[in-house]
Design a protein that fits this description.
The protein is built from 7 helices and 8 strands. The chain has 195 residues and is α/β, with parallel strands linked by helices. The chain has 2 domains: 114 residues, P-loop containing nucleotide triphosphate hydrolases (Rossmann fold, 3-Layer(aba) Sandwich), CATH 3.40.50; 60 residues, no CATH class. A hairpin with a 2-residue loop joins β4 and β5.
């Protein structure tokens, strides 16, 4: 089954300036598989848009539908089964490297695929990493790679897209990078969007 995401007239106001909008009237739709670059200058709302889609922030206007069902009616567990996020900044949960690798399986109540986890670590040049090491003791570079480095993540995510038809939303400030990787580009500037 193909997953669809529809966004209609989405908007987010500046919290300190309620009469001014970070972005508004954002309308688009996604039908998998697709690779979409979100391009714009810092502070234009790219990360905020993804935070809203990840239900980490609330929109001030508009509607989001996943497979025709309004976003607010989706249980968080069901949404996590259809969408996932890769943060720009590495986030390590308390516990070991292995605990961090297992968290998705725990959240989805599925068996942990150790072979897949080891293959991913190998692709990230992290196969030497001790799984029992406390995650907070990793170097910044190891944290970045464990959370998926940008260059390797691009290859891994592109491979995932090709193999499974997963939709990718990719934030960048680099038009050349967007054009080389993405099928569509959402350009966010001065509260407008074009694709």
């Amino acid at each position: 089954m193909t997953t669809s995401l529809e966004i209609e007239n989405l908007g987010k106001q500046f919290s300190a300036l309620p009469d001014q909008w970070l972005f508004r009237d954002f309308t688009t739709s996604i039908t998998e598989p697709d690779i979409i670059g979100i391009l714009g200058k810092p502070g234009q709302g790219k990360s905020t848009l993804l935070r809203i889609l990840g239900r980490l922030a609330k929109a001030d206007q508009g509607t989001i539908r996943l497979d025709g069902k309004e976003w607010r009616h989706w249980e968080p567990e069901a949404r996590r089964m259809t969408m996932s996020d890769v943060a720009q900044q590495p986030v390590m949960l308390p516990g070991t490297v292995e605990d961090n690798l297992r968290i998705t399986s725990v959240l989805h109540q599925r068996p942990f695929d150790e072979k897949l986890a080891r293959a991913c670590l190998e692709q990230l040049a992290m196969d030497h990493l001790e799984w029992g090491k406390p995650a907070h003791q990793l170097s910044d570079g190891e944290k970045q790679r464990l959370a998926i480095s940008k260059q390797t993540a691009g290859r891994l995510l592109f491979n995932l897209h090709m193999q499974t038809g997963t939709t990718l939303l990719w934030i960048t400030h680099d038009l050349e990078e967007d054009q080389s990787v993405c099928k569509r580009i959402w350009f966010i500037a001065k509260r407008s969007r074009t694709s």
